[in-house]
């Protein structure tokens, strides 16, 4: 304590010196701040252009590249019969191909086509795995070599009727062949004689999430 | 006893952030848009048949008489056709007068009585109210019970009535 007091006394001009230094510093800062905008700053911009960022596509095709493109359809005229009676069935193959970029899953439903004169108790549809097994004797009762992948549907309304119990996977570039069994119910009323119609099989492929 | 060392609050926060980073993307991802494509396959025409049973077999004819009307009878008989896979067959006979133009149908359709092997239908002379020396034809066809569509061709058996007060049916030829 006594030493500190002694130094204060021996250097009386130090306080003034520090004050002068502080003023000089403030002045220097003030000049610098005030004059900053007046200087030019060189700069450089580098734009990096990417390659094309193209979205992927999802394209579900049927059989031999039919229904190509988004939400397109086609007519498979080979699915047809005539002269069938109650209890008779015919079976047809249907191959679905995922030619899009991502893997996906698909659903399949059946609904009445634009032509329909049947009553509501006639036409049955069911999807199976495997291939059709033809029956050439009356009553014609084609079968499918695989197992059912959904319930048998009676096309009794104009509504869309799902054919698959669960959606099926379809890898990118992959395909899946189903067997569609179409027939007339054994309980189809007599009023269905000589009636006819077309069906629409609607498959929807959704990318795997 | 070793004291339990509690994690620092900073460590807890880091752990929570890590968990969120793992969980949040999984929760959010399904709500994003997914590309889809619909491929509709329209079929050709799937047509029902017009099912008819087998055409009727040949029709035979037999008579009783000549006796005083209306006791004289004429009976048509046809063997049964093969049973269809489903349903039953009914046999229909219609009587036409064939010596006038156009041919004139006599009475209503008649369902033949189906037996074990044959189907039959009989008329007395009074039942048909036939004229003397006129030509007639019985036409037999088959159909599913309750159905409208009938088999083709029909089977026929011609006959005449030569009597007046005393009916005298005479069986003719058939197809």
Counted beta strands of chain B? 13
Low-confidence segments of chain A, given as residue ranges, are 1-13
Highest CATH level, the class of the largest domain in chain A: Mainly Beta
Number of domains in the coordinates of chain A? 2
Most residues in contact, chain pair and counts: A-B, 62 and 28 residues
Just name the CATH architecture of the largest domain in chain A: Sandwich
The biggest sheet of chain B, with number of strands, parallel, antiparallel or mixed sense and barrel status, is: 5 strands, antiparallel
SSE order of chain A, one letter for each helix or strand: HHEEEEEEEEEEEEE
State the helical fraction of chain A: 10-25%
| CATH fold category name of the largest domain in chain A | Immunoglobulin-like
What's the total helix number of chain B?
Answer: 2
Could you walk me through the main structural features you see in this protein, from its secondary elements to its overall organization?
The complex is a heterodimer of chains A (209) and B (175). Chain A is of the alpha+beta class. Chain A has helices at residues 2-10, 14-35; strands at residues 60-62, 73-76, 81-84, 89-98, 104-116, 123-129, 132-133, 143-144, 153-154, 161-162, 168-170, 175-184, 196-207. By secondary structure, chain B is mainly beta. Chain B has a domain at 60-174: Sandwich (Immunoglobulin-like). Helix content of chain B is 14%, strand content 44%. Chain B has helices at residues 9-28, 125-128; strands at residues 36-43, 46-48, 60-64, 67-68, 73-79, 89-97, 104-111, 113-114, 118-124, 134-144, 155-161, 166-167, 169-174. Chain B is rod-shaped, with a radius of gyration of 40 Å. Chain A binds chain B through residues 56-62, 66-67, 70-88, 90, 94, 96, 100, 102, 113, 115, 118, 122-123, 138-139, 182, 184, 186, 188, 190, 192-207, 209, and chain B through 29-30, 32, 34-51, 85-86, 144, 146-149. β2 of chain A pairs parallel with β1 (36-43) of chain B, so a sheet runs across the interface.
């Amino acid at each position: 304590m006594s030493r500190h007091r002694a130094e204060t006394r021996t250097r009386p001009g130090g306080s003034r010196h520090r004050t002068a230094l502080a003023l000089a510093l403030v002045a220097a800062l003030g000049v610098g701040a005030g004059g900053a905008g007046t200087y030019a700053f060189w700069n450089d911009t580098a734009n990096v252009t990417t390659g094309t960022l193209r979205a992927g596509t999802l394209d579900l095709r049927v059989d031999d590249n039919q229904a190509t493109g988004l939400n397109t359809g086609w007519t498979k005229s080979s699915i047809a019969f005539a002269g069938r009676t109650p209890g008779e069935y015919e079976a047809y193959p249907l191959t679905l191909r995922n030619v899009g970029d991502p893997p996906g899953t698909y659903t399949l439903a059946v609904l009445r086509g634009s032509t329909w004169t049947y009553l509501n108790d006639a036409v049955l549809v069911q999807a199976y795995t495997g291939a059709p097994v033809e029956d050439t004797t009356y009553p014609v009762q084609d079968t499918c070599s695989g197992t059912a992948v959904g319930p048998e549907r009676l096309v009794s309304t104009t509504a869309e009727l799902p054919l698959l119990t669960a959606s099926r996977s379809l890898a990118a570039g992959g395909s899946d062949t189903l067997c569609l069994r179409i027939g007339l119910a054994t309980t189809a009323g007599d009023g269905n004689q000589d009636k006819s119609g077309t069906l629409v099989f609607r498959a929807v492929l959704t990318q795997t999430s | 006893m070793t004291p339990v060392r509690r994690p620092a609050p900073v460590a807890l926060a880091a752990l929570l952030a890590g968990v969120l980073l793992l969980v949040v993307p999984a929760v959010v991802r399904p709500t994003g848009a997914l590309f889809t494509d619909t491929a509709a396959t329209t079929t050709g025409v799937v047509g029902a048949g017009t099912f008819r049973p087998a055409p009727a077999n040949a029709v035979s004819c037999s008579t009783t008489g000549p006796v005083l009307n209306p006791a004289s009878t004429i009976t048509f008989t046809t063997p049964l056709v093969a049973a269809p896979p489903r349903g039953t067959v009914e046999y229909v006979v219609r009587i036409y007068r064939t010596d006038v133009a156009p041919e004139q149908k006599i009475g209503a359709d008649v369902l033949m009585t189906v037996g074990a092997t044959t189907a039959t239908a009989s008329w007395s002379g009074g039942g048909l109210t036939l004229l003397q020396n006129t030509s007639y034809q019985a036409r037999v066809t088959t159909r599913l019970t309750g159905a409208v569509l009938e088999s083709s061709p029909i089977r026929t058996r011609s006959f005449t009535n030569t009597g007046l007060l005393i009916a005298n049916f005479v069986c003719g030829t058939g197809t």
